[in-house]
Amino acid sequence: MRSRTLKRFFTHILRTPVPDVLGFVALLAALGLLFAYNTAALGYRWQWHRVLRFIFTIRDGGFVPGPLLTGLGVTLRVVAASLVLSILIALVTALFRLSRSLLAQTIARVYLEVIRNTPLIVQLFFTYFVVAPLVGMDGWTAAILALSLFEGAYASEIIRGGITSLPAGQWEAAYSTGLGRRDALRFVVLPQAFRRILPPLVGQAVSLIKDSALVSTIAIYDLTMSGQVIVARTFLAFEIWFVVALIYLVITVTLSASVSVLRHKLLGKYEYHY
Amino acid sequence: MSTTIDKDDKDDKDDKEPIIHVRNVVKTFGNGVRALDGVSIDIGRREVVVVVGPSGSGKSTFLRCLNGLETADSGEIVIDGIPLDHNRKNRLEIRKEAGMVFQQFNLFPHMTVGRNIDLAQIRVRGASTEEARRNTCELLTKVGLEDRVDAYPAQLSGGQQQRVAIARALALRPRVMLFDEATSALDPEMIGEVLDVMRDLAREGMTMVVVTHEMGFAREVGDRAVFIDEGRFIEIGPAAEVFDNAKEERTREFLSKVL
Ligand SMILES: Nc1ncnc2c1ncn2[C@@H]1O[C@H](COP(=O)(O)OP(=O)(O)OP(=O)(O)O)[C@@H](O)[C@H]1O
Ligand SMILES: [Mg+2]
Question: Which chain A residues touch B100 with a CB distance below 8 Å?
């Protein structure tokens, strides 16, 4: 019994990104050693003891988050909001592209072309400096909107792919049993498409987390911005950027790993193929 | 509460009027293939019409035009008094009236067998979950799978899946059933169980259009047989006559190859 659970645990682990992560951490350690060696030669004085208080401090027996954790909080909030909004945008765009209405198709095409052929940072600046003042939007909204529009474009192509890759027979069976287009989508097509697109969608969410670092350029005090400020004040460049990178790594890996572990629950018990 | 194909409660229209009326139907695909080249047939209530012909002759296209999966370029199709035209509502009505069974079963793999059959009853007919499930269980009993209501399609054999697909096609109590090579994807030992279910349906008086390569079955169950080649109905006649005594040379040639 015990060994079976253990075995299942290990097969689970092997299917998650954990082995990759372990390899990556080993690589980081090796690089770190190399760095330490070279920086010693450069005369860089490591001051890891000064770093902790930027993460958190214990004052009067209480836990007080430092600027890095506060920044992480901002990053997570921006990411969470953008994730929800971008999925909504993506779903609507995918359905627009697949719709028979020429207008809907055109709107979707123009949106996709604009987003995918301009740099994210330009989109952020455009939203923040041009659109936001015109409509009276605050920086947060601008950041979330720009990120959602950007990731939504890519996610919509993933969703569209998931829908179109479904065998035509599923649509036909749905229609033949008397279901209309909307019910066919809702009960037959989308639930199956969801199973196919979950993994690439998680990859897109990881991109979103990384891309969110760019909101620091429009004065949002996210994790990256906090790191920048601390480095400017303390010159602890190596230590702080190490920590910041590590925090990003932890959240992206946690996301991917938890989804692959939860996959079974999210997708139902039965795997099938065509 | 009758869930069998006892259609007496529905048969309010004239019994002699054809339930399927097809006149000069032409269907051309985008690539220029003329899959149906002006076909006509009238099919009466309770009649079983078997359609045979070589690969690519237009058999599937004919069936798919009958329930609106394909739109004919020209011609006239009327099912049980409902004309199949560009009116979306008519199209939906006709799909309720005509159940379709595919070669590849096309069950919804993410739903249990029960849910596969419940779905349209709930969404299209507005049945309650309990009502739908009761009917589903009766349909499953009919196809001999009452104990598999909670199984997923992937857990069933091909023959069982096809029987579920037949039950699903019957869920809205259609007046017409269309079978497109329902046994062609099956291992030989499973063909019989599916043909048995189809035979029962025919005996109960279901109007059926059956595309099949099972010539023995076609001759036995078919009232009339249609031989189709290159998008045309080359020969239509009583099944026994077409199979044993075809008038057309092309029919005889085809049958001699497959029999
Ligand atoms: N969606 C489509 N697009 C283009 N051509 C098609 C399409 N569907 C069918 N055809 C063509 O129309 C003709 C008739 O096809 P159909 O599938 O009706 O034949 P069939 O008699 O069912 O053949 P089989 O016995 O192989 O199933 C064929 O030449 C086929 O290539
Ligand atoms: Mg065919």
Answer: 172, 176
Q: pLDDT tens digits, residue range B98-121? A: 999 999 999 999 999 999 999 999
- Contacts of B24-29 with CB under 8 Å at 24 or more apart are B24/B74, B24/B75, B24/B76, B25/B62, B25/B65, B25/B72, B25/B74, B25/B75, B25/B76, B25/B77, B26/B72, B26/B73, B26/B74, B26/B75, B27/B58, B27/B61, B27/B65, B27/B70, B27/B72, B27/B73, B27/B231, B28/B73
Per residue in B217-253, pLDDT (tens digit) is 999 999 999 999 999 999 999 999 999 999 999 999 9
Written as six digits, the tokens of A121 are 């940072």
Q: How far is A181 from chain B (nearest CA, A)?
A: 10
Residues of B with CB under 8 A from a CB of A: 67-69, 92, 95-96, 98-100, 102, 104, 106-110, 119-120, 123-124, 152-155, 165, 168-169, 171-172
Per-residue 3-state assignment (H helix, E strand, C coil) for B197-221: HHHHHHHCCCEEEEECCCHHHHHHH
Block residue for tokens 């997570």: A76
ipTM for this model? 0.90
